[in-house]
Amino acid sequence: MPVDRPSGAEPAPRRVGMLVVVAVVALLLDLGSKTAVVAGLSDRAPIRLLGGLLTLRVTRNSGAAFSIATGMTVVLTLIAIGVVVAILRTARRLRSLPWAVSLGLLLGGATGNLVDRLFRSPAPLKGHVVDWIELPHWPVFNLADSAIVCGGVLAVVLASRGLQIDGTRVSGADAGEGVRDAGPDADDGKS
Question: DSSP label at 92?
Answer without folding.
Answer: G
